[in-house]
Design brief:
The complex is a heterodimer of chains A (about 300) and B (about 475). Chain A is an alpha/beta fold and about 300 residues long. Chain A contains twelve helices and ten strands. The chains are: A alpha/beta (about 300), B mainly alpha (about 475).
């Protein structure tokens, strides 16, 4: 499989010098033959909470500079899968992940991989906007600072501006960077959280139902933003909203809950295909039932 | 519960309109009754507090019957001042020392001078040769090193040694206000009955006395109630607060951080948690025994300061401020841990996730995001716990607070007394005047606690506003 040193050095390289999409394309052109190898690839991943098997046997390949959506009914484990991709599930004391999650070919669950490094390159945006109770400026600068950003005052300001511009928030907040992050509206807070995530120069951004707490207009803005961010980042999004998945994503994975022999409700991957294909001609009966609203 | 007859309509199970009205008025009556009961409970609490304050204030002010051995007015006129305009406190330092020189026996004078000298450059009672000799001895008195006395200090000496005011009886505030004549006639009856054999009634004069006054706060302990004060006790209590905070806050907050942020649920951690909760309920006297056994006895070389000095240790045993402060720190520790834990738990997990998802370590997240949010709660809990500890008496008695000490604590390794000890001591004396002093010291202690609580409120408000 993988050995620890290569994983670490690989991660280190990326932390020191985040690759832009062009660099990445130049670095691995010959491997883009049929389907480009995923930026993140899960291989037979199982997640348990104690004895409870939450998701079983998930093998997914998330493409570079693509938006991949995870959809499915409540309790199907799509959030669990997402949180396993940057080891946020480690924070749940009883959680245990089996199988492998490869990030650029390296297993992030291999021994010796520090989850702190993983989370820095695979950022995350949560369901409820969760800015820090600090100024807008500090909200963004902090992530860079703790990750060793050595910029002086004007360089930090530049970084903050770049991140806010990246999250399409700059024009709205440029005159009140010292205001608390809490003073913003819900949609602005969520974009602040996205700005905060991209300020640490991640490679992948995981979004866990990022619009479920927002009104339709704020939702639309976030969706537009996702399409812009796709240029530079790979995005994996969990959503309850099928229209959203259809609007923004390139590929969609449909999860469903299956009762097993012991009555345990375990989430399983049903179908994973390009979004238009999944929504127009699903191969699985379950998928068709779900997207046509017959259940879930 | 048995299943009700299924054929009955659901609607019939609800009361009809008239039944409902009856039920409603019963419910309203019961609600009023409970409201009245809660109000009664509150009244009891407020009354108890009011009574407490009344008792203390009542004893802190009032009429006193005084006999002056030397009349201050006469002393002032003897010095050539107009006694109408000039009080004894207004005369110069040199004149005060002169009065002492004239009235105090040379033995007492030498003792006073050895405690603290009157002038930097000359001696009043002692001759230079003897002074040099006693100062070069192995145990030089404090007067050899300490600076000279100040005006207030010498004034209290004059009052104590020259005027020699003797309070022969005291009256409480409320009777003094309502019936001042009653007190005077009571004293007159006392003279007729021979209760004051040393004086005649002509010598007595009555005056108002605020036992709680600035001089009282700034004078050291004395065996003469007229001039006794609580400066040593206040300083002792201040040192105790300092050491308690220095010990309990870092240890308590760090322990709370570990338990909330790092500890995984396990048998051992549950056991530790339960025991911390139990420790918070352990009676303070048991902490006193622990402090005596560990800090005073086992750690004596440390608590007496012996390991920090090559020669003579600052204290001859472990009954020092450090030992008492650490004991109070231990007493406070469980409460600090529990309140800090509550404050940390109240910080939403979404902030932890936000920090960690940015690639921060757990410590970075705690340090920069969690602690600032939890700080108001941590501070409030801590200050309230410390305020509780300031009033503790039992552990201090066991650890060995000095009951009579007239010198200010010089550092963490000196002997000490504290406000509650002083109150306890004075209350146990038979003379009425000491009870007034105890009440005044209680006022001081209450003020100290109020200050600490106010600090808690202010800090909490300030930090929570900043977190908005």
């Amino acid at each position: 499989m993988t050995n620890e040193t290569s994983t670490e050095s690989r991660l280190n390289e990326m932390i020191e010098e985040p690759m832009t999409s062009e660099q990445e394309n130049q670095a691995e052109p010959e491997t883009r033959v049929v389907r480009p190898p995923g930026v993140i690839e899960t291989k037979n991943m199982y997640v348990f909470y104690g004895d409870f098997m939450a998701v079983a046997d998930v093998s997914l390949n998330f493409g570079k500079n693509e938006i991949s959506a995870l959809i499915g009914p409540s309790g199907c484990g799509k959030s669990t899968v997402l949180r396993s991709l940057n080891r946020m599930n480690d924070l749940v004391a009883s959680a245990r992940t089996e199988g492998e999650v490869h990030y650029h070919g390296e297993n992030i669950y291999a021994e010796g991989v520090d989850p702190v490094e993983v989370r820095r390159t695979i950022g995350m945006v949560f369901q409820k906007p969760n800015p820090f109770p600090k100024s807008i400026f500090d909200n963004i600068a902090w992530g860079a600072k703790i990750n060793g950003f050595r910029g002086n005052k004007s360089e930090t300001e530049g970084l903050v501006q770049e991140a806010l511009e990246g999250a399409a928030l700059w024009d709205e907040v440029k005159d009140k960077l010292a205001d608390s992050g809490y003073s913003l509206s819900g949609g602005q807070q969520q974009r602040l959280c996205i700005a905060r995530a991209i300020a640490t120069k991640p490679d992948v951004i995981l979004m866990d139902e990022p619009c479920s707490a927002l009104d339709p207009i704020a939702t639309l803005r976030i969706e537009e933003l996702m399409l812009e961010l796709k240029e530079n980042y790979s995005i994996i999004i969990v959503t309850h909203n099928m229209q959203q998945a259809a609007r923004v994503s390139d590929r969609t994975a449909f999860f469903n809950v299956k009762l097993n022999d012991t009555g345990m409700r375990t989430g399983r991957l049903v179908e994973y295909s390009p979004t238009d294909q999944l929504f127009t001609s699903p191969t699985e009966k379950d998928t068709e039932d779900y997207i046509t609203g017959r259940f879930g | 519960m048995s299943v009700q007859a299924p054929e009955r309509e659901r609607q019939e199970l609800f009361p009809n309109k008239t039944e409902y009205q009856g039920l409603l008025s019963r419910r309203t009556r019961r609600a009023r009754l409970f409201q009245a009961g809660c109000l009664l409970a509150l009244t009891i609490a407020v009354l108890a507090l009011a009574t407490l304050l009344y008792t203390i204030i009542n004893d802190s002010f009032g009429l006193v019957a005084i006999v002056n051995q030397n009349d201050p007015a006469a002393i002032v006129s003897d010095l050539g001042y107009d006694s109408e305009t000039t009080g004894l406190a207004d005369i110069s330092y040199d004149e005060m020392v002169g009065l002492l020189e004239a009235d105090v026996s040379s033995g007492v004078g030498r003792r006073l001078e050895r405690d603290q000298r009157f002038y930097e450059d000359r001696l009043v009672f002692e001759d230079d040769a003897t002074w040099a000799e006693i100062c070069s001895s192995d145990t030089p008195p404090t007067g050899c090193t300490a600076g000279p006395r100040d005006q207030a200090n010498v004034y209290s000496l004059v009052v104590e040694r020259v005027v020699v005011a003797d309070i022969i009886a005291t009256n409480q505030l409320v009777p003094s206000l309502l019936d001042p004549q009653g007190f005077e006639s009571e004293i007159a009856t006392g003279f007729e009955a021979g209760r004051f054999p040393d004086y005649t009634i002509e010598q007595v004069h009555f005056e108002w006395r605020a036992w709680f006054n600035p001089t009282f706060l700034n004078t050291p302990q004395s065996s003469t109630p007229e001039v006794a004060g609580i400066r040593t006790a206040i300083l002792g209590s201040a040192w105790l607060v300092l050491i308690t905070i220095l010990f309990a806050v870092p240890v308590g907050v760090a322990a709370a951080i570990y338990l909330v942020e790092y500890a995984k649920p396990s048998r051992l951690n549950d056991f530790i948690q339960t025991n911390i909760n139990n420790l918070a309920g352990v009676p303070s006297i048991i902490y006193g025994m622990l402090g005596l056994a560990i800090f005073v006895r086992v750690l004596e070389p440390f608590t007496s300061g012996a390991i920090f000095t090559a020669g003579v240790p600052p204290s001859d045993n472990g009954r020092t401020i450090v030992a008492a402060g650490l004991t109070l720190g231990l007493l406070t520790l469980p409460v600090v841990i529990i309140s800090s834990q509550e404050a940390l738990k109240a910080v939403p997990d979404s902030l932890r996730h936000a920090g960690l998802a940015l690639g921060a370590t757990r410590w970075q997240t705690v340090r920069s995001q969690i602690l600032p949010v939890a700080l108001p709660g941590v501070l409030t809990g801590t200050i309230l716990a410390v305020a509780r500890a300031v009033g503790e008496t039992a552990p201090l008695i066991l650890v060995g607070a000095a009951s009579f000490i007239t010198t200010d604590p010089s550092g963490p390794f000196s002997k000490f007394t504290a406000l509650p000890i002083q109150i306890f001591q004075w209350t146990s004396f038979p003379q009425e005047e000491f009870h007034n002093l105890a009440a005044s010291a209680s006022v001081a202690l209450l003020l100290l606690l109020l200050t600490l609580n106010a600090a808690a409120v202010i800090l909490r408000n300030r930090y929570s506003r900043r977190a908005e």
